[in-house]
Amino acid sequence: MRYGFFDQDKKEYIITNPYTPTPWINYLGGGDYGGIISHTAGGYSFDGDPRYKRVLRYRYNAIPEDQPGRYIYIRDNKSENYWSASWQPVKRDYDYYKCYHGLGYTAIEQKVDDIKTSITYFVPGNHSMEIWWLRVKNHSAQQRDLGLFTYAEFSFFDAVKDQQNLDWTQQIQQGDFEDNIIYWNAFMKYWDYIFMTSSMPVSSFETSREAFIGSYRDLSNPVVVERGYCDNNEARRANGAGVLNNNITLEAGEEKEIIYLLGTTPDKDISKKEIGNFLKVDRVKREFVNLKKYWDKYLNKCQVETPDDEMNLMLNTWNPYQCKTTFNWSRFVSLYQLGINRGMGFRDSAQDILGVVHSIPDESKELIIKLLKCQHSKGNAYHLFYPLTGEGSIGEAGEDGSVDWYSDDHLWVILSVTAYIKETGDLAFLEELVPYVDSKKKASVLRHLCQALEFTESHKGKHNLPLAGFADWNDTINLDHGNGTAESVWTGMLYSYVLKEMIDLLQYIKQEELADKYNDYYRKQIGDINKWAWDGSWYLRAFDDNGQVVGSSKCESGKIFLNPQSWSIIAGITAKENRKKLLENVKKYLNTEYGVVLLYPAYHEYDKSKGGITTYPPGAKENGGIFLHTNPWVMIAEAIEGNGEQAYQYYRQVLPPCRNEIADIYEVEPYVYCQNILGKEHPQFGLGRNSWLTGTAAWMYRAAVYYILGIRPDYDGLIVDPVLPSEWNGFKVRRVIRNKILKIECIRKGEKSIEINGEKISDTNKIKYSRLNKKENNIRVYFN
Ligand code: GLC
Prior knowledge:
With about 775 residues, the chain is an alpha+beta fold. It is about 30% helix and about 25% strand.
């Protein structure tokens, strides 16, 4: 069944049936104040940090589903009938319902009982507030008297205490009403205020959830809405609620607009001034136009025109939009990651940067610096950190006395830095001084990167492969059980790849000696991988703490793992004669109609020696599920091998818009990638979960733009090296880089050459930046 469709021009996904299999959500805000919002307005808000500055509560995984949220109840004061503008929580039958998820905003339209409501939610710029912009129109022939009631359920800022220390949090929190504004804070006023207000004079208000709902009722039938007025209660202890009641009269055909603001402020007086400015429809409209302009600018850095409409839709709008969301929130806060336990992931953010660096290089640089500040002077890094406090943690590592570092985290940031420099040419960044987390002494960015390499070089096992640490990219392969001898073949591949990146960078900046040193490391590492980890038809995954192999044809379960195969090609490790065979085996054992699974056959029982991976049943998540993050690596490997057809087929088979028709199997949003899909060994094969916050976003973007379309920046020029399916004769791209606009037309012609503003340069696939002599450059790229 279909629940909605794309409006490509407006860059919206429009849901027409609210009974989606899971809440289909969107994000508000740009990384500071913001929140998540579902198609029925369920969801919650936070200010910069969902754990330490939570504004709205959400009841995760509860019954009824997807509550609470940002609600407006509408009450016909004559008939006493009432409903809610976002369908939930009252769920009244409607004549008409549509939810528009757009970039940074969600709008919900509904018609019930001849009253049409249309509510748009968004965050204006980087202000610490959100706007609920409501329009109500009377489509009946009679005058209508309506009572409007907002409902926002306030959280204690510390979202963990809000759930765990009810005896304290509920006793200390208090509501006030001043100048038409509800304020919510704790008795000792130690934290900022949450505020909520309306553009109309409030007829009555309530600040206590209990008083609003009434005994043994719920959000679908609150006593206050049923009776039509609030008690103007400034709660002195309670679960907090922002209930503003406006009574309006609408003549036949008349429409009224009302603006509600919800946000945080350190000071009541500041908020009063600021609030006043935002309570005018003109200002709200201007802010909404600015939001659209922001996203146009963000997206404009790279726009493609290929023969594939769904690919265009993803690459021009939804994929970069998701990349910005993962850049903002890493794996911290979604419907699945609750914004309380994880914090920002070090390796995750380092990869997220790869998906946005062309659009927001300055913000990418800021995040890189935050990451480097989480690096220890030995070179390894914290696994997680909290954005508001900068506090870091080693995640699950170190529990039960296990090793307290991951083998890969610190290596990923090398990729973020080289991507940033290739994009911007900002070599001075390498000299910027940044402290380590454990020492006040600062070191240059370049030094940080070298230190990361040295950590791995000095933590190797008996096959000269990186020690496994607590885990590598796969958080759930936990092989070190006290002997400290387990090794990760895959981390050896990541290590080889980043060594290559560093060698290229060092050669470019003419630090030959260091480049030679790393070249020795690289040669030695790939030599040892080929010596110890080639299993005959593919690469092994690891050696466990007892020296047993993982990922071999000789194993009963987990005979073949995906990542060492794709990465052996990405890192240039696989011998020429083995590559074809290796990729064929990936396809034969791991590919399915819904994507490529992470390993085969899955583990059939819990095995402590392998760790978390065997806690999942066969086919789920890391145990043989389609862990989507890894699929683009196979596409990249195929593209590196020149297999355009296969790379593209792997790309198409996981495109979310292609799942629009099978939403009842897939269940999650068809406009963004999800993290995992149940694999072929699971009875619910094809079911997706953990949408939005996944490294899939950045890597799918890379696979498509950098490798299939082949447009990737190097230090001295933009490489254009498409690897396309044979039926494609070309495509167009508009790319902005180093303050130049490049209008590129790629044409299949059986030869390799480039024309820059009419001047032909033969036999190359690189557009040298030095040759871009105009602001706007017309470029033709001919390829075989
Ligand atoms: C999750 C983690 C990511 C890890 C992946 C595989 O997505 O956020 O860091 O690489 O799982 O275990």
